[in-house]
Specification:
This protein is mainly β. The chain is built from one helix and 21 strands.
């Protein structure tokens, strides 16, 4: 997928998908864990929203140094957009079931080689149904930061390619109660996704991969959150009995299940999405017999028919 044509006039302003990437987002990495977006619910903590209260969000952005020979469009300020949604893979700005625009705000232009930070106070309304993007609980966040003389496309976020856009999607899920890892039973979590193509159907691949050897960036991101879960002791070093997507809306899905083997356990499903189709899938992991107090890291992704990533979510299931 190309960069946003509406922002093509600027190559100087960027957000990082992983720490230190300088705006060059790796589509094969965990690009949806951007350190440049943070939400901390006043009661629930990181990555969760508390309705009726002020939820502080911080959005960071950067400007390449003069010697980078980047092209600046000439804007006087930076426009910062914040979007939120329920736990999701692919997300789009033109589908109100997928995302809600929280705020568009101007922020000072950083000096060449410098960075800026824009705080946003978000107060989610009380009483919203669970399927509303601004409802309470785990939130997925997208931010766009760009010179104020440009206008981004209104139908696509262009993640992960566009350097002006970053996504922060991670959910820590306590599974069961005391001793849950010792008794059989699945742990499930509902994940939303959407076909980012509004006018054509496409066959997408949903994939779940167990990460038993996270890199330093993923490990740090996960541990800072998992340590807040009562009963968490360590990241899992052995796979669970298995995991899968439950695809009730896709009876003709083509499934490849490698979740029970060694190496790099994974589960893959190819499904047909109608134009602009918004849907939910259930991710289920069988933690019975697993490590009590362990956190199992799963990276869930959606890839388009062209092989390009469209969305990602890190889900950490903690057997407590």
């Amino acid at each position: 997928m190309a960069n946003d044509p509406g922002l093509a006039g600027d190559t100087c302003i960027f957000m990082e998908a992983t720490s230190g990437d300088g705006g060059t987002h790796d589509p094969n990495g965990t690009w949806w864990l951007s350190p440049d977006i943070s939400l901390v619910g006043p009661t629930s903590g990181p990555d969760k929203a508390d309705p009726g209260q002020v939820n502080p969000v911080q959005v960071n952005f950067h400007r390449h140094a003069a010697q980078s020979n980047c092209v600046f469009s000439g804007g006087e300020n930076i426009t910062v957009e914040l979007w939120v949604g329920n736990p999701s893979l692919a997300m789009t700005p033109d589908n109100p079931a997928s995302t809600s625009l929280i705020q568009i705000i101007g922020s000072p232009l950083p000096a060449e080689g410098g960075s800026g930070s824009q705080p946003i106070d978000w107060t989610p309304p009380q009483g919203l149904p669970p399927n509303d993007p601004q409802s309470s609980g785990h939130k997925c966040l997208i931010a766009r930061c760009y010179p104020d003389n440009l206008t981004p496309t209104s139908t696509n976020f262009f993640v992960p390619d566009d350097q002006h856009v970053a996504q922060h999607n991670i959910c820590i899920v306590p599974c069961g109660g005391p001793g849950a890892a010792r008794r059989p039973g699945p742990c499930g979590f509902s994940v939303a996704t959407v076909n980012p193509h509004a006018k054509k159907a496409q066959r997408v691949t949903l994939r779940a991969v167990l990460d038993l050897k996270p890199n330093d960036f993923v490990r740090k991101t996960v541990l800072t959150r998992a340590k807040r879960v009562r009963g968490f002791h360590e990241l899992a070093t052995e796979p669970p009995h298995g995991f899968k997507f439950e695809l009730r809306d896709f009876p003709k899905a083509e499934v490849t299940d490698h979740s029970h083997g060694g190496g790099h356990p994974s589960f893959e499903a190819r499904v047909e999405l109608a134009p602009a189709q918004f849907t939910h899938v259930e991710f289920v992991a069988d933690l019975s017999g697993g490590q009590l107090g362990a956190g199992y890291i799963f990276h869930l992704t959606q890839t388009g028919a062209d092989g390009h990533p469209q969305g990602g979510l890190t889900l950490v299931m903690v057997a407590v």
